[in-house]
Amino acid sequence: MSSTTVDVAVIGAGVIGTAAAWRLADAGVRVALIDRSHPAAGSSGASDGYLAVSTKTPGPAMALAAASRARYPAWLQRLGPVDAEVRGGVLLVDHSDGLSAIEAHARHLRDHGVDVDLVDGARLRQLEPGLAPHLVAGLVCESEMQLNPYKLALATVAAATAAGVIPFWPATPVVERLDATGATLALGDGRRVIAHQVVLAAGAASAALGADFGLTLPVAPRQGVLAITTKTPPLAQRFLVSARYLTHKRDPSLAGTSTDPAERIGHGFTCETLPTGQHIIGSSRRFVGFDRTVPPDVLAIILASAIAHLPGLADCTILRAFAGLRPFVPDNRPLLGRSAAQPAVIVATGHEGDGVTLAPITAEVVTALALGQTPPVDLTGLDPDRFAGTQPHT
Ligand SMILES: Cc1cc2nc3c(=O)[nH]c(=O)nc-3n(C[C@H](O)[C@H](O)[C@H](O)COP(=O)(O)OP(=O)(O)OC[C@H]3O[C@@H](n4cnc5c(N)ncnc54)[C@H](O)[C@@H]3O)c2cc1C
């Protein structure tokens, strides 16, 4: 039976695990990257690519996003092409959204050094002429970027393997022995990975994997549906996202209490214009276990809302629709840090709808922790042991 000894085994080859593996190897660490399927098989391959700071909750989430966004330009210089573009983004406000809450949000963003402009409906339609007349305002952030998360995961795998990372897939590790100084992971084909430290980055599947390591990680899959169009004439310059999207993201209980079909699926409108001339239209937030099928009624709500926001979409052809599973944590904060309960384990999961945005800062935190250095950001509130002893989210 063959065994490979490494300093760090990273489990999960989504944008988080691949980024962590790359940065670790770049720092001279001997790394194994393990995925039960293949890179970007999880949420990272079924995601928009909006690198947004302006949609984050003030506090740690906004600070993390700003720190991560600041690191992207240097990253992108080192990775292959990932369709990265600074296109800007707009948070769309209609009559039902509280304008005062958006004004307060704009102030928080400026306090975090993010340049945003709150414009009225007339100015909004000058900037984005395709938008519907019912939108009364928009919070414009011209510095927001977008990229292709699937290509990002593949580019970081390529950079990681060039830096010496050893790939293992498809392989689901079974934890055979774990102590404070490392773990032995048995892979299905009889191989073993003996690691001094383990990075747990299994996305929506992190709860089960965490349990194998004796950790309580209440990560639940939160399904989001996206539809992609064929190439169309340009309908919008910027990434469009309705304020309702943020409300649902932050408060899952809204879907359960509402009788409105769109509210019940946690719908908020999003539209990303790709360099190919296609549009990605979203989305929903539902707890349906690990189901990745696309129900026609959910898709119908998303498409009707998309046309109501951006009427030109009525003339598009839908190429396909797909669903991804965001790694949701009940308090809406990632689980990021070294576990005090299992000191050989560094947890990097639970990024919900923000993992693409947060990949660079997460990778830097993981690397610093693995090397015994001080992390580059304050990890208060992100402690991976904070749910120990609680019941998982249902
Ligand atoms: C519809 C939708 C839109 C989104 N839009 C955005 C956006 O615009 N911007 C943004 O920043 N984020 C967005 N996200 C969120 C983003 O996709 C996720 O936060 C991110 O992809 C999570 O990355 P990850 O690496 O943690 O998890 P994943 O990408 O899910 O990767 C986890 C990996 O772990 C592997 N794995 C699981 N269990 C095991 C095991 N036991 N052994 C080995 N391997 C295992 C899986 O095969 C998988 O490859 C969106 C998500 C969705 C669903």
Total beta strand runs: 19
CATH topology title of the largest domain: FAD/NAD(P)-binding domain
Question: What is the end-to-end distance?
Answer: 40 Å
Q: Just name the CATH architecture of the largest domain.
A: 3-Layer(bba) Sandwich
Contiguous helical run count: 11
Residues in helix, %: 25-40%
> Radius of gyration over alpha carbons?
21 Å
Number of domains: 2
Secondary structure class reads alpha+beta
Apparent shape: globular
CATH class of the largest domain: Alpha Beta
For the structure shown, list the relevant keywords.
alpha+beta, FAD/NAD(P)-binding domain, 19 strands, 11 helices, D-Amino Acid Oxidase, Chain A, domain 2, 2 domains, 394 residues, eight-stranded mixed sheet
Describe the overall structure.
Strands 1, 2, 9, 10, 11, 12, 18 and 19 form an eight-stranded mixed β-sheet that branches. An eight-stranded mixed β-sheet has the order 6-7-5-14-15-16-13-17, sandwiched between helices. The model has no long low-confidence stretch (mean pLDDT about 95). The protein has helices spanning about 15-25, 60-80, 100-110, 120-125, 150-160, 205-210, 245-250, 255, 260-265, 295-310, 355-370; strands spanning about 5-10, 30-35, 50, 85, 90-95, 115-120, 135-140, 145, 165-170, 175-180, 180-185, 190-200, 220-230, 240, 270-275, 280, 320-330, 335-340, 345-350. It contains eleven helices and 19 strands. The longest helix has 19 residues, at about 60-80. Helix 1 (about 15-25) packs parallel to helix 5, helix 1 (about 15-25) packs parallel to helix 11 and helix 2 (about 60-80) packs across helix 11 (about 355-370). The chain is of the alpha+beta class and about 400 residues long. Helix content is about 30%, strand content about 25%. The chain starts with a strand and ends in a 24-residue tail after the last helix. The chain folds into two domains: about 1-85 and about 145-215 and about 330-394, FAD/NAD(P)-binding domain, CATH 3.50.50.60; about 90-140 and about 220-330, D-Amino Acid Oxidase, subunit A, domain 2 (D-Amino Acid Oxidase, Chain A, domain 2). The structure holds flavin-adenine dinucleotide (FAD). Flavin-adenine dinucleotide binds near residues 36, 50, 204 and 327.
